[in-house]
Automatic annotation (TrEMBL):
Keyword vocabulary terms for this entry: Signal
Record flagged with keyword Translocase: no
Name listed for the protein in its UniProt record: Tetratricopeptide repeat-containing protein
InterPro entries: TPR-like_helical_dom_sf, TPR_rpt
């Protein structure tokens, strides 16, 4: 079994010894295209252009943005603007991207700048709007704008169908936002809601472990992490959380070994960066104690 979503987002949380830990599970920006397929219409040249623009924005954000701007000037409307916003997000301009996602959602709601199908301008459905607000929430989170992220995700959840896969993904987004705000109880409640509705989501058990650790429920954290690692034995995020958990329990040597395992599995990326930072902070704390 593979993790169902890319390992991109890392939301900082703190332990009582100020060792930052990172939840490295799930995509930062879930992209849903405003295409003919999504609208139940035949795919057109505009959909092909949108797909090409999004692909370029993913591989080379600056080039993707240039394509989007040229398309906007050519009357590309919401699809072109969405490609531009995604490119900005990929470049790390998260606040700017979030503001654009919100404006796009407002226009989608009334059909402004939307594609024309069968002689009528498309008006976005509730799930399409929910997805766009969810993208804005994730971008605000990455920009460190927690309150704005909370507002956007709450709006998204009012639009998503109940007990749908979309709702579950948005609830997971809310859990990550809550964790970034150090509201681990809310994060754990949201994660439990998703697991109840979709018990097969073994990929989020590492998040459950982190949230349970955040509320000092070490028994739950250990069980969730063991279940995660049984399915994903060589996943770096599992060993990162194992180190975080062992450190919280006071076993610093076990924490170090777990973080070193992360570096054996991945030599770069958010998991590796977090593991290195944790080891460095722990070593610095030891040196400071020796010097005092």
């Amino acid at each position: 079994m593979k993790l169902t979503r890319a390992l991109r987002i890392f939301a900082a949380m703190k332990t009582n010894v100020s060792i930052p830990i990172f939840l490295c599970v799930a995509s930062a920006i879930a992209i849903t295209s405003v295409t003919g397929a999504a609208l139940g219409q035949p795919v057109t040249k505009d959909e092909d252009r949108y797909a090409a623009c999004m692909d370029m924005a993913d591989r080379s954000p600056d080039k993707g943005i240039n394509l989007a701007l040229a398309w906007i000037a050519d009357g590309g409307g919401v699809p072109a603007r969405h490609c531009e916003a995604y490119g900005l997000a990929r470049m790390g301009e998260h606040a700017e991207a979030a503001a654009r996602f919100l404006k796009i959602a407002e226009d989608m709601r009334i059909g402004r700048d939307m594609p024309i199908r069968m002689g009528q301008r498309v008006v976005a459905s509730a799930p399409m709007l929910a997805d766009m607000y969810g993208q804005a929430a994730n971008a605000w989170l990455l920009a460190g704008e927690i309150v704005r992220a909370e507002d956007a995700i709450d709006l998204a959840l009012t639009l998503a169908p109940k007990n749908s896969s979309q709702e579950y993904e948005l609830v997971l987004d809310r859990a990550r936002i809550a964790a970034a705000d150090e509201d681990f109880q809310l994060a754990l409640t949201d994660l439990d809601y998703v697991l109840k509705g979709d018990p097969g989501r073994k990929d989020i058990l590492v998040l459950v472990a982190a949230a349970a650790r955040g509320v000092a429920d070490f028994m739950r954290a250990n069980q969730a992490l063991a279940d995660f690692q049984a399915v994903f034995p060589n996943q770096a995020s599992g060993y990162l959380e194992l180190g975080n958990l062992r450190h919280a329990e006071g076993d610093k040597e076990a924490a170090r070994q777990a973080w070193l395992k992360v570096l054996l599995l991945e030599d770069e990326g958010p998991n590796a960066d977090a593991a290195r930072a944790n080891i460095e902070r722990m070593d610095l704390t030891v040196e400071e104690k020796k010097a005092s």
